[in-house]
Structure formats: C-alpha cells, structure tokens
Amino acid sequence: MSEGNDLKVLVVDDDFRVAGLHAAYVDAVPGFVALPPVHDVRTVPRVVAETRPDLLLLDVYLPHGSGLDLLRELDVDAFVLSAAVEGPAVRTALRRGALAYLVKPFEERMLAERLRSYARYRRLLAADVLDQAAIDRARRVLLAGGEEAAPSSGAATEQAVLAAVSAAEDELSVVEVAEAVGISRATAQRYLSQLAQAGLIRLGLRYGLRGRPEHRYGAVR
Asked: How far apart are CA 41 and CA 61, in angstroms?
C-alpha cells in the first residue's frame, strides 16, 4: 500500500504505556499507521466517527465500560488484545465479530503477522463482486495469522516479486520473475507460490508443443 493509503489503526487501552507500545508496533508495519490511542472507552464512539479508523485494537477490561460492548456497538473491524483468557470473554469477542484475539503480553512479531494478514484479507475482499473461492481464500489468509506469509526477513523480496508480477503486461514464468528481481529460480518459486496461495497473484498454465505445461504468474486485476 502506498503512502497516503495506509490503513488507520486505533488502539483502545487504559494503560498509557501499553497503548503507546502497541501503537509503535502498528507504525512499524508498512502499510499501517496508528492514530493517537484512546484510553477512555466513553470517548471511543466519538473518536471513531471523527477519525474513521480501518481497524480497532481493543482491550476487554476498561474503566467505565468493556471492549466487548464496543464490538457490538461499532461497525468497524477489530482485533481484541487482552489479558482476559476466560472462555466466555473469548467466545463473546469472536461472536461479536473480532477478527483476531491476542492474549497480552505478546511479541511484536505476533501483532505484525496479524496485521499483514489483515491487509491481505482487505485486498482480497476489495472487489465489487466476489465468488466463493475468493471469500474462502480471504478467510484462510485472515485466520492463518501470518502462517501463509513470507518470513519477515524476506518481506522486501516478497514485495519485489509481487511488484514484478503486478507491473508485467503479460503473465511471467518463474525464470522471468527470477531475472527481473535478481534472485534464484528456487527463491522466486517459493515466493510466487506463497503469493498465489494468499490470492495476491494468479496462477495459470501455458501449454507448449511438448512436455509439461509451464506455470505462469499474473497480476490480480
């Protein structure tokens, strides 16, 4: 996502230190920007109306109210980040639409992976009309929580591979992608497979005069 189109994230947590830490985690993920955190649950509806965040990061136990009540009241995507591990609290959060539930404290990597999965989920559901395969793929990407994503150390390579395929007018072979990005064929194949599985590029076949059909990769239009 280019600058200016970053997904806006609002952290709701009464602990100023924790809220600032989670906002910093958000800002470290490309494509996301943290809004000033909110510490009083009573002001959240007003702040949401004014800032129009794409995603909320909600604690459950808050002074003057509950993050679970906000899930029911607000029409905004949300993750729950909480130390609450009671079954009823978790079930209520998921029943009311929480897209992820992270138990505090957690490593920065865990939230980053969830955010990257959320960005993929948003891209997959951006079309005006969706078929069943696209809906199922978006759900898998979201629930994977980063398991389908490339390792963070290879994020730049993954983005380079995606950019090469997206910029091409025609479908590319593995060899052509490897040459365009400057990586080995095996590395190109690994990232192409991950991107195709996540639904960010499409996989096709080209049949020649003999031998096996060749895999070709194209942009999702």
From this structure: 10
Closest CA to 119 of 101, 144, 94: 144
Query: What are 11's strand-pairing partners?
Result: 57
- Burial class of 131 by CB neighbour count within 10 A (0 to 12, 13 to 18, 19+): exposed
Q: Judge contact between 52 and 77, C-beta under 8 A.
A: no
Nearest by Cα to 7 from 75, 77, 57, 55: 55
Residue 42: DSSP 8-state: G
Q: Is the pLDDT of residue 91 over 90?
A: yes
Q: Which residues, 6+ apart, have CB-to-CB distance to 179 below 8 Å?
A: none
The mean pLDDT of the chain is: 86
Q: Given a cut of 80, is residue 125 above it in pLDDT?
A: yes
> Has residue 78 got a pLDDT over 90?
yes
Q: What is the pLDDT of residue 73?
A: 92
If you average pLDDT over residues 173-177, what whole number do you get? 91
| 74 in Cβ contact with 44 (< 8 Å) | yes
For residue 153, list its beta bridge partners: none
Q: Which residues pair with 204 in a beta bridge?
A: 216
